[in-house]
Amino acid sequence: MAGDRAILDVTMRWGLAKVLGLTDAQRKLRFRITVKHVVDEEEGPGPEPVPHASGRSGPRSASANARQGAPSAPGADARRLSPGVLPDLISLPAFGISTHNEGGRDLLDFAATVYNGGPAPLVAEGFRRGSAPEMDAYQFFYRGERQVASRRVGTMEYDVRPSHSHWHFRDFAVYDLTNRKHKRLRTSGKEAFCLAPTDAIDLLGRGAVVDPGNGDLSTACGDPTSVWVREVLASGWGDTYSQQRAGQSIDITGLPNGSYWIRVTANPLNRLKETTKKNNVSYRRVVLGGTAGERTVKVPKYGRINSETYFGGPGGMRLG
């Protein structure tokens, strides 16, 4: 390192690169780093602020919106935005798959991640009309720190169920179980989401940030008294929901044993504006077995990756 400049060389282990199908050249990266220092008026010298793509510098504009109430209807610019200010919601295959029986119902549990692979953050704000049970939801778009457009994207609702207790944005994703021809057979009860960056997925993409800001659901998604909330999914980060959260399991009671597919669909009603919708759907095959009250599930590899080894050994796991 010389002064404020440095070079960082990163090499992926050959075994992992081989599994991912990467060449020797592709498994090596070089980063040129420039360290910048700024002075915070309250805290003194510190690191460079996280750029707008993290969703943390935009609150100056967002706070103004909160004081003024819901934004006025967007103009044509919201329909003709450049790709550089748009997110890209990508659904990843389900994982952490298991079964359990509760209240006489057989349930299929899983975890699902939708991540933002676009160059800009997904910013959704909710504005409450007095003490109304729902908030009007808007998607905001930024170029740098300047808000360039907004559009109405449905509603937010307050979820009072255990392990939730915060404002949820509707229409972010849906989960269902399909047959071989991808016909829907059963649907998850999960229908609304508190958006937050829970997992780093791809921090090398355009616009990705290392520090996405607040991922604490208790503060990011408000409480029963909130009149405004701002939920952000930063570029390069995913929002993962697991089977421990109430309402996500798929009821498989009465389904015959055999092969099925867990389908994860991001932006199901196309209300959110993004760079492309071609990567919004993913499928993960599961094989159901067992008998009523004692259902089992086996999960074949996804390509060359056996994600279920971590979640209880080959073939998935069984929770009693």
Automatic annotation (TrEMBL):
Top-level taxon in the UniProt lineage: Bacteria
GO molecular-function terms, A-Z: copper ion binding; oxidoreductase activity, acting on the CH-NH2 group of donors, oxygen as acceptor
Disordered: annotated span: 40-80
InterPro entries: Lysyl_oxidase (IPR001695)
Residue ranges, compositional bias (Low complexity): 51-67
Protein name: Lysyl oxidase
Species of the source: Nocardioides marmoriginsengisoli
